[in-house]
Amino acid sequence: MKDKPKILVGDKIVDEALEMLRAEADVDLKRGIKQPELEEIIENYDALIVRSVPLVTEEVIKRGKKLKVVGRAGNGVDNIDLETATQQGVVVVNTPDSNSFSAGEQTIALMLASARNLPQAHQTVKEGGWGRSRYMGSELYGKTVGIVGLGRIGSFVATRLKAFQMRVIAYDPYIPLERFKRFGVERVETLNELVRQSDIITVHTPKTEETIGMIGKEQFQIAKPGVRVVNCARGGIIDEGALAWALEEGIVASAALDVFSKEPCTGNPLLKFDNVVVTPHLGATTFEAQHRVGTDLARYVLAVLRGEIVPNTVNIPCLLGEEIDTMRPLLELAEYLGKLYYQLERMPVEKVELCYYGEIAQQETGIITLAFLKGLLSPVMGDQVNLVNATWFAENRGIKVCERRDESKRSGHVNLISVIFRGNGTKVEFAGTLAGDQTPRIVRVNQYRVDVTPSPYMLFVEHIDRPGVIGPFASALGKANINIAMMQAARKVKGEESMMILNIDSAVDEATLADLRKLGGISNVRVVNM
Ligand SMILES: NC(=O)C1=CN([C@@H]2O[C@H](COP(=O)(O)OP(=O)(O)OC[C@H]3O[C@@H](n4cnc5c(N)ncnc54)[C@H](O)[C@@H]3O)[C@@H](O)[C@H]2O)C=CC1
Ligand SMILES: O=C(O)C(=O)COP(=O)(O)O
């Protein structure tokens, strides 16, 4: 019996998610695990589950010799070294939709709390005071809110704030105008334009090289006096030093922060300002969000461990739930076409040209190319290559990969994947399609037109097209007790070099292979395992 996979859960996830994991795996729960311990024990695990801590560094991933998946129970993956994970073939999966409502509501809660001095007033009353005159607030009604990043959370915040009758503007150069229209948001062309017009600025981008410090001193210098800022995305998107300066200068009336450049934020200079309202990264901390992120992630992690493709994989092209089902046979076909190459040919590959013909050309073909590359490299690299690192390995081996799509049918097939391999000035071509029942078929091997269903044991035999060649070959297999399941012969020109492809029921040992190669009219026998 196969050993159960081992999963390390490094932070709190809901009990229901833990139960789901325990049904299929051995689970160790080490909530709040620290870096040194994580580095020490990670080699024992197939999967690691984290939230925004701990850091999943290069060291952690490289030491995780068995690691197949890092699951982020939440959205931001800035605590995970994605590059190393990709190189090592470790799938990184998250649950970005599952906590957006909570993070969006937290943003609005913080906005209102800081505009109305709620935490400060609350504290005064708790301490026996009253202080009504000290806590003059400011309405949201009629104000302009500037949203930086109109993604999941930014758009959620936008639609809610419209109910407050605010003017909502947004800056997000990476999304089409249609998305702004859908949410009734005015698009501004530049960040500085947004800053100039906003009474409140709220940031909702991921933390990237481009977004770190994007609201900095330059922006505070051109902002409306009395501007308020909210950061419920990632610490450092609003530069903390520049914010402290703008608070000192009285440019910023209030700031509300859920996230910090270093967490916990003990000793952060911003804490000394009375008009800075803070929470300890609570955006996703609601019963509902934690239930969703935990159970969704448990499902995804288990599926990856079973070898399935899941939505929300951060380091391979993303597929939606139903797309995965449509894609599965195509991925299988592409992988077969890839696997064929090094088993049939001995020429190093310099360039691969994949062409997707027919209906398939309308699909997101990136992942099909990955499946092909995985198939191509697996005969030479074994299990270490997967969908996640296939491109990286291909690039490292100097293989240039080009993709082309053509919606017209080719050779009468509704879908066809054609692959041309180039190297040493020669060219090899394979093509495959899906049959009516969606089973993969190989339909071209160089100049030979064939119709072959890939199977675990196959023989590709080059021979002369003349009587008395195929019969003895089949007899020799029979003598070696190898059953032929299917057999097909293809030729270009009568009487010349031809190809016979056989699906057989068991492996052929070396001695039998040597005998087969000696038979009259046989010029080459290659074993292919799919
Ligand atoms: N405080 C908390 O507990 C939580 C925080 N988050 C954080 O919230 C942030 C937003 O999350 P989602 O809305 O789910 O992300 P998303 O990926 O759906 O949206 C991000 C948007 O930012 C835009 N963007 C990227 N670079 C930009 C730039 N330089 N300028 C302007 N726009 C840019 C993108 O085009 C995209 O539309 C992330 O940083 C995430 O980690 C998410 C959940 C909980
Ligand atoms: O999902 C996110 O991006 C968050 O920031 C939430 O972080 P957490 O899971 O609460 O540590």
Bin the helical content: 25-40%
CATH fold-level name of the largest domain: Rossmann fold
User: Per CATH, which architecture of the largest domain?
Assistant: 3-Layer(aba) Sandwich
Biggest beta sheet summary: 7 strands, parallel
Please report the number of helical segments: 17
Number of domain units: 4
Ligand roster: 1,4-dihydronicotinamide adenine dinucleotide, 2-oxo-3-(phosphonooxy)propanoic acid
Q: Indicate the structural class.
A: alpha/beta
What's the shape?
elongated
Q: What do these coordinates show?
A:
This protein has helices at residues 15-24, 35-41, 58-63, 82-87, 100-115, 118-126, 152-162, 177-182, 191-197, 217-222, 240-248, 287-305, 321-344, 366-381, 390-396, 470-479, 510-518, and strands spanning 6-9, 26-29, 47-50, 69-72, 91-94, 144-148, 167-171, 186-187, 200-203, 227-231, 252-257, 276-278, 351-358, 400-406, 415-423, 426-434, 440-445, 448-452, 457-464, 484-491, 497-504, 522-528. The longest helix has 24 residues, at 321-344. It has a seven-stranded parallel beta sheet with strand order 8-7-6-9-10-11-12, with helices on both faces. Helix 5 crosses helix 7 (152-162). It has four domains: 6-94 and 288-306, NAD(P)-binding Rossmann-like Domain (Rossmann fold, 3-Layer(aba) Sandwich); 99-278, 3-Layer(aba) Sandwich (Rossmann fold), CATH 3.40.50; 318-453, 2-Layer Sandwich (60s Ribosomal Protein L30, Chain: A), CATH 3.30.1330.90; 455-529, Alpha-Beta Plaits (2-Layer Sandwich), CATH 3.30.70.260. The two termini are 24 Å apart. The protein is 34% helix and 24% strand. The site of 2-oxo-3-(phosphonooxy)propanoic acid has 11 residues, from loops.
